[in-house]
Amino acid sequence: MSRGWGHRTRSRRRVLVALSVAVLATAAVVAGVADIAASVASVASAGDYQLVQYPNAGFGGLRAQIARAHHSIDMEMYELADPATERALVTAAARGVRVRVLLDQAFSGAEVNQPAVAYLRGHGVQVKWGPRGYIFHIKATSFDGAVSDISTANLVAKYYRTTRDAEIIDADPAQVRAIEATFAHDFNAGPSGVPREQTVQAPGLVWSPNTGSGTAETALVSQISAARHAVDFTSEELADPAIYQALARDARRGVTCRVVMTRSSDWDTAFQTLTRAGCRVHVFPDSATALYIHEKLILDDPGRAGESMLLGSQNASVTSLTRNRELGIVLNDHDGGAHAIAAASATFSGDFAHAAAW
Q1: What is the pTM of this model?
Q2: Are 151 and 225 within one domain?
Q3: Tell me: the pLDDT tens digits for 245-274?
Q4: HSE-up (13 A, CA, CB side) for residue 285
Q5: What share of the chain is helix, strand, coil (3-state, %, to 5)?
Q6: Is residue 105 over pLDDT 60?
Q7: What's the CATH number where 154 sits?
Q8: How high is the pLDDT of residue 236?
Q9: Can you tell me the distance from the alpha carbon of 346 to that of 350, in angstroms, rounded to the nearest whole number?
Q10: Dist. CA 101–CA 124, nearest whole Å
Q11: If residue 76 lies in a helix (H) or strand (E), which one and from where to where?
């Protein structure tokens, strides 16, 4: 996996290549989150949704959210290896905030997360492991039951400066309640097992696993297939035939199809299928001088009426879409997502321009 949770482990240090990124003005979302950080660039917001784009934004905004929390912080995270964020969580707990953290222990999770577990437990933070054999690949943090961050990014500091990721700061009440309720199910399930399909539904959320309104695989295929004019796609992985065949069908029916990823022979079958269908695939080299694509994003018809996007932790693999704990969100131009879609689209186009044709 790939660097986040994949076939290969990348321990190299990398420096960031020149990027073309949209930088939009920051607007208030809700009280306690509005002034996330003066240094946060690459942010677009409107209504209940705010898009934060990495690496340009940096992670000071997350630590500012932690510092502003009054009552509760609930974090469900695949990997946590960021001393600054860990200290911020401890400081919040010390001032009386209830801080609960659930971390993955599958694959390399136990090794990566063990130092954070020991530190947090030793300083008043409630920490639990996800059950063995069940991958918690989700990256979600909720604050005071009012705001939830739905992210593609792990909290591993050594990768912050070199990795393309993004998150939605979500203040929609129904969605935040659903995320908090699902967190409670996961946190209280115990090490022997989690009710894997136990998710609380809200319109716009895409859970894995999910037996409510269909699987995440179905949701991603539907998102891709809904494109009328153009579809843009990024992912760390592209191994699920249902996903790349849906993109290929789009290209064959005349939809402009663009894909940006990090080069890997693991995705050659998918890339061959896509390019034969007419989809343009651009890749960054898997090298020490290239931007690493970790973001998972689908953009439908950006810049047109009816535009939408799906962003979240789900990789385009069968395991991620059907068996892991994952969370994504769908935004549309009619529900306050237009600013986020525009910013994500501008960044995608910049990455596509800088990457080489496969």
Answers
A1: 0.88
A2: no
A3: 999 999 999 999 999 999 999 999 999 999
A4: 8
A5: 30, 25, 40
A6: yes
A7: 3.30.870.10
A8: 98
A9: 6
A10: 11
A11: strand 72-77
Residue pair 121/150 in contact by the 8 Å Cβ criterion: no
Q: Tell me, what's the pLDDT at 5?
A: 42
User: Is residue 233 within 8 Å of residue 339, measured between CB atoms?
Assistant: no
**In terms of domains, do 142 and 80 share one?**
yes
157 token code pair: 């500091």
Q: What are the E-state strand segments in 118-228?
A: 126-129, 139-143, 147-151, 155-156, 163-170, 205-208
Query: Given 166, 196, 226, which residue is the final one in a domain?
Result: 196
Radius of gyration of the chain (CA): 19
The count of other CB atoms within 10 Å of the CB of residue 201 is 15
The SS3 assignment for 148 reads strand
The amino acid present at 225, given as its one-letter code, is S
The domain of 59 spans 43-196
Q: Give pLDDT tens digits for 166-206.
A: 999 999 999 999 999 999 988 988 666 555 557 889 999 99
Residue 190 amino acid letter: G
Whether 12 is in a domain gets the answer: no
- Mean pLDDT score across all residues of the chain: 86
Contacts of 34 (CB under 8 A, 6+ apart): 28
Overall domain count for the chain: 2
Strand, helix or coil for residue 17: coil
Do the domain assignments include residue 117?
Answer: yes
Assigned domain for 27 exists:
no
Q: In this predicted model, what pLDDT tens digit does every residue of 2-19 receive, in sequence order?
A: 454 443 334 333 333 333
pLDDT at 37 exceeding the cut of 70: no
Asked if the structure places residue 234 within a domain, the reply is: yes
Task: From 194, 198, 193, select the one nearest 208 (Cα to Cα).
Answer: 198
Q: How far is CA 115 from CA 5, 80, 290, in A?
A: 18, 9, 29
For residues 52 and 181, state if they share a domain.
yes
Both 222 and 189 in one domain: the answer is: no
State whether 169 and 257 are in the same domain. Answer: no
Q: Taking a C-beta distance cutoff of 8 angstroms, is the pair 101, 130 a contact?
A: no
